[in-house]
Amino acid sequence: MLKSAYVEEVFTLRAGDRVELLGWVRNVRQHGKLVFLDLRDSTGVVQVTVKTGVADEEAVKTASTLGREASVKVVGRVVEDRRAPGGREILCERLEVVGRAYGEYPIKPGVGPRFLYDNRHLYLRSPKVSAIMKIRSAMVEAARRWFIEHGFTEIHCPTFITAAVEGGATLFEVNYFGRKAYLTQSVQFYQEAAIYGLEKVFSIQPSFRAEKSKTRRHLTEFWHIEAEMAFTELPELLETVEQLISYMVVETVEKRKREFTELGRRFNVEVVEPPFERIKYEEALNILESKGVTISWGEDLGADEERILTEQFDKPFFVTHYPKEAKAFYHMPDPSNPRVTLSADLLAPKGYGEIVGGGQRIHDYKLLIQRIEEENLNPQDYRWYLDLRKYGTIPHSGFGLGVERLLQWILNLRNIRSACLFPRTRQRIYP
RNA sequence: GCCGGGGUAGCUCAGCCUGGUAGAGCAGCGGGCUGUUAACCCGUUGGUCGUCGGUUCGAAGCCGACCCCCGGCGCCA
């Protein structure tokens, strides 16, 4: 039987079966008329042995001229051999070159991270990057499934916008036929409009931030999972977030076991078992105080404070009720203490920091105008947003989740860039 | 934007303190090898030492300015 197969199948077929594999040559080891090829495809790597007596002279000759990453078609038999990695290899009978590798392949052992990002278009072929991308895909798929199963409608919002969601944040400016426009940093406002028809909505799309951040947690373009819910107040929002996060992580870990192993990463799913602890901003200050860090009330938690705080927890936890001066104007003031807002951030443990940010929105027209003016913003810029409060306003809440941040945490990635196919940072827009 | 580290062969780096005319490993190329696992052995190509200026008989190394990269902070997901 001549059979077209994927590399992973080699390890489940019977010894002696003949297969036809298509893939790329990861490495070549030559011993005169015995040549070993490490053949890679999207499912794994297998050793192909090309030797005279099994393959013809021509195949051995061809094999010995192959460079790294040449694409080939191999026909051969699956054999058990203790000397082969994984205990199995392909004894090559026929070898065909699909595409040669011209010149030396730049990606090889010993190269540094910078070089790998300069050559990301090639490095993507590595099993490690493939594993991360498969995990990422599974994670986003799980999120989408969870939303759909819970009655949310997926909506797609514009990327070009005219005004900032949050006054101070830095936006990328684009020339929109002579008018000033910006790239979106959140679809929240559009989602707030959409809930009047759909009640529960979610979006999975990129957001852009022009902040000049130079850290391993920041991208200028990142994938943002956002949701907005009508008739929802803070406590229900927190439950939604913890259910979603838990589902996403557990599903991903269970469905992508092999990829986690490939990356040498284990994730204990008990860590994301709901409920997550909720602490108020004020309690966070007390915890910090007990660790010898004092910040004045009203100040936002800085990176150092966040790190110290997250080190006290093994599971993700919510920090709620931030002071209104630390949050954007649309956050709902707490009726029982108007100095604070019905806001919440979900912080990952052990220093990974903010994964989700959200809260209850102001739904009262007058209060919203008042808050816009207090922040020295112009209500004219928010006309349609204010309109939403004029016709049948309702309490509502929403949140945003950083896909790469969540991946960075569950995969323990040193740098957020490795969670992206082609990362975009302040310094990098190529390749 | 502020602070710290860095830029030397295709890649990873040493040399810089103490100035004397550029090195290693890997990769490449040629040759050898029938059981390698990032194979090994022999041979070999390869450098505006980030840029500009200064000091000096002489600068990769000292001094000054600038450019670029990485990270920490601020800002945030």
TrEMBL record:
One matching Pfam family: tRNA-synt_2
Keywords associated with the record: Aminoacyl-tRNA synthetase, ATP-binding, Cytoplasm, Ligase, Nucleotide-binding, Protein biosynthesis
InterPro entries named in the record: Aa-tRNA-synt_II, aa-tRNA-synth_II, aa-tRNA-synth_II/BPL/LPL, Asn-tRNA-ligase, Asp-tRNA_synthase_2, Asp/Asn-tRNA-synth_IIb, NA-bd_OB-fold, NA-bd_OB_tRNA
Subcellular location, record wording: Cytoplasm
UniProt entry tagged with the keyword Cytoplasm: yes
Residues of the Aminoacyl-transfer RNA synthetases class-II family profile domain: 133-431
The enzyme's E.C. designation: 6.1.1.22
GO cellular-component term (any): cytoplasm
Lineage: superkingdom: Archaea
Biological processes annotated in GO: asparaginyl-tRNA aminoacylation; aspartyl-tRNA aminoacylation
NCBIfam families named in the record: asnS (TIGR00457), aspS_nondisc (TIGR00458), PRK03932.1 (NF003037), PRK05159.1 (NF003483)
Family, per entry: Belongs to the class-II aminoacyl-tRNA synthetase family. Type 2 subfamily.
Protein's recorded name: Asparagine--tRNA ligase
Protein species of origin: Caldiarchaeum subterraneum
